[in-house]
Amino acid sequence: MTPYELFVGLRYTRAKRRNHFISFISLISMLGIALGIIVLITVLSVMNGFQQELRARILGVASHVEISSFGGVLADWRQVMEAARAHPQVKGAAPYILGQGMLAFDQAVQGALIRGILPEREDEVADIGRHMKQGRLADLKPGEFGIILGVELAHALGVRLGDKVTVIAPQGNVTPAGILPRLKQFTVVGIFEVDMNLYDAGLAFVHMEDAARLYRMGDAVSGVRLKLTDLFAAPEVSRQLAVALPGNLLIRDWTQQNANFFRAVQMEKRVMFVIMFFIVAVAAFNIVSTLVMVVTDKQADIAILRTLGATPASIMKIFIVQGTLIGLVGTVAGVVGGVLLAANIDVVVPAIERLFGVHFLAKDVYYISELPSQVQTWDVVAIATVSFVLSLLATLYPSWRASRTNPAEALRYE
């Protein structure tokens, strides 16, 4: 591309008095591309943040890998746990007992999952200790029948620290009068908040020995939970453990246990990308109408350039320069604005909520009540590249049409 082609192309992007409308349309095209990119970067960043936050909160309570038996009772759990610890990826292991129960206090009754844990080992496999609002995991002591409730579960029951709740196990006692439910009073010694309604409203922790008495597990447990050095290696580690560990064991990793959540988020991210991509595409192809009007307006100029020796290829390059500049400015502005908005979404959204008195993500409806964001470099690069390529493609037809201008016809009425 010669300097004169670049100079003329850049000169055409600035309006004269008689063609302000064309420059206005060019500005609208730039703004359209920029807004489309801003929305696309923000939406994908929020989806990335949602996926990361969802994974972090689930794994704060759940584990990377769980080893159990098909019957739900793991008798030789100590041997299994030590064998699993030998794997180089395993950095922590802890047994657990899991059962369902009804919690009753005064007139309130709520169903929940009861998880029996060893408090001294729980920090090896989960981060629940970091989410304690009141009390500590260490307050769960064997034989004292203490219980730690999720904050929403405690609120639904109306209990506070020191209150006694009745836990009703589904397994009943057989008596001459029939099958009676098994009841046990537990003292509330702690309340946790993961800020995820699934756990805050439906999970309670007790000491593993107390859970064993409640569910009559004896020395057995429901399974062993593992924490890995690399959580994304969980599927491969699960397969390796399935081969290495003896017995008929059921080994599941976090990607299997919560597959529906993460598939849904990934699918939503792809769908949102396609939808927002069309917004950018529409804005990019506004360049076509802009350049077609410019070509029509510059018929005489094109004819003069042709008579001075400009080739059709040179004419085409002039208008490609103009269209490319529109696309480039819109893309750069969109990337800068999108990254800034996505990086500050935690400030912008609360401000909007306070201004209009609304709350976009209710805790009782959504798993996450805040709008997270994570800007990924690859997403930004992909969006900017696709947008610029679309803008470049949009210049081809008007530029080709300009190169086909017949000088004699263009100058006939000048």
Which residues form runs of ≥5 with pLDDT under 50?
A: none
Beta percentage is 15-25%
| Proportion of helical residues | 40-55%
Sheet with the most strands, sense and barrel status = 6 strands, mixed, barrel
**Termini distance?**
29 Å
Q: Name the overall outline.
A: elongated
Query: Radius of gyration, Cα only, in angstroms?
Result: 32 Å
What's the number of helices? 16
Mean pLDDT: 81
Strand order of the largest sheet: 2-3-8-5-7-6
Indicate how many domains the architecture comprises. 2
SSE order, one letter for each helix or strand? HHEHEEHEEHEEHEHEHEHHHHHHHH
Total beta strands: 10
How would you summarize this macromolecular structure in one to three sentences?
The protein is α+β, with helices and mostly antiparallel strands.
What does it look like?
- The protein is α+β, with helices and mostly antiparallel strands and 414 residues long.
- The chain has two domains: 3-56 and 261-409, no CATH class; 63-256, no CATH class.
- It is 53% helix and 20% strand.
- The chain is built from 16 helices and ten strands.
- The chain has helices spanning 3-11, 20-61, 77-85, 119-122, 151-157, 197-200, 208-214, 234-244, 254-257, 259-297, 299-307, 312-343, 345-356, 377-394, 396-403, 407-411; strands at 65-69, 90-105, 108-117, 132-134, 146-150, 164-175, 178-192, 203-207, 223-228, 249-253.
- A six-stranded mixed beta barrel has the order 2-3-8-5-7-6.
- A hairpin with a 2-residue loop joins strand 6 and strand 7 (178-192).
